[in-house]
Amino acid sequence: MLAVAVDLLTGRYLATAYNDRGLAEWPPHPARLFSALVAALPREGEEPDPAAEEALRWLETLSPPAITASQASARAVWPTFVPVNDMAVVNLDDRELHTLDEAEAAVLAATTAKEATKATKARDKALLRYAGLVDKAIRLTGKPAGSDLKSVTQRFQAHGLRQPRTFPSVTPQHPRVVFQWPDAHPSPSRRDALDRLAERVTRLGHSSSLVSLRLVDSPPPPSLLPDPDGALVLRVPGPGQLSRLEAAFAVHQESEPRVLPCAFKRYGPPGQVRADPPPHSIFSEDWVVFRRIAGPMLPLSAVAELSARMRAALMSRCPEPVPWALSGHEPDGKPTRDPHAAFFCLPFVGHEHADGLIRGLALSLPRDLPAPQRVRLLAAVAAWEDAVREDDEEHPALELQLGPTGTLVLERVIDRAPLRALRPDTWCAPSRRWATVTPIALDRNPGELRSRDRQRLDRALAAAAETIAVACERIGLPRPMRVEVQPGSPFVAGLPARSFPAFPPQAGRTRRVQVHARLEFDQPVAGPISLGAGRFLGLGLCRPLLSED
Q1: How many other CB atoms are there within 10 angstroms of residue 484's CB atom?
Q2: Structural domain boundaries, residue 174
Q3: Helix (H) or strand (E) holding 31
Q4: Residues 110, 148 share a domain
Q5: pTM score
Q6: How many CB atoms are located within 10 Å of the residue 205 CB?
Q7: CA 331 to CA 342: how far, in whole Å?
């Protein structure tokens, strides 16, 4: 048994979540504990401790630890304006730092060894490039210019430039966290070495998050265990962790931006009961999201045309034959019977300040897409980026030509999108109640939905509701218990169905009746939900209907 107790001396824990800089990390991640122990190793000028280094290399090979941590309340995060150290560094191009952040996110998102290796190389390249820019910005010159003297004066004025910073923190109910490895049996020498390192650790997370570490013999029962189905994702060390930290330190030297090398492990409470996953549609939450960075702000009514242009742009980058997963057609030209990729336009709706304008697009892959088709489809995205990439640019701007409307400039989203509208969980979270953001192009004509004859109107509404219920079953969902047909969307800034152009737009094809709807199921169902004849081009896109909507 090996157990390390961490006492939070101030009663609070300050550390930023790895995937959201506005949130605090809780509980402390095992990889952060390991890094704190590494930082406690004797430094240059001190007597080396080979036993401590050997103990850390043994510790990194152990399975992820169990954790005992109480519930914690998060402190409200307010920006604090702090003086900057160097005007030149502050004035660096934000795009380079943004590129570095996205490279870090790609490392975190890697799910295979190949992806991790590629992402790590890209991250290291971005880090070195950014370090070079910082070095160039702060390098001393033999004879300072007048502008240099002026900037120095500005820095030391009482009201000099200040930059906003946030310091997320939590206050746990009990200010102690215990990490324990029940199956570990360290030798006396290793235990003594780890004990020496623990005594030298003074902080965990932010420099103001003061701690006291000690090895304990009788730890309390764990509250979190490694669990492949757990909801909590924590960073953990792995074999070679010490070497990776040493290599990273050689680059950042505690002054440059850095990325914590780690692996990821899911955690959950002991003995939790597994709930059956909610029913879901043929579409998956596996999205490739593109955010608008320039070009015209398009209204929601442009969804079908914009989706079609996005699909055409990707098809033009595919070698022949174009995969049916993208085109929706077999090599002989006949429509495929298998689910294929859908394109969703993502508008800002459902908020008191919403404007209904499209903020980005999502390519949603079918849930059971065969691997060869998936590879070819994603290769089309990569080919588009490679065609416009300049030098070592990691995430190039993609231009989508819209004819007289102009050129829409997009960028693939790597990290968690800052806008709620661009996050898959906004559109896919399980819910019993759903409503359309874009109207459903009905598969069958229901009759006169604008009839003044009450009986005719009731028959048309019933027929439309039945068509929508069948459309739910067609994409793999259970039949809804209630369908309410409406002329407009219930979401703030949504457009009525009559504001959308005819679908399909091609002359000679049967035009579909378009309606909005509210859906209610007898159990929560997971999205994305896109219904009707235009479901692969963004029509009939639904969103969970929450109490605040």
Answers
A1: 15
A2: 2-76+170-268
A3: helix 30-39
A4: yes
A5: 0.55
A6: 22
A7: 19
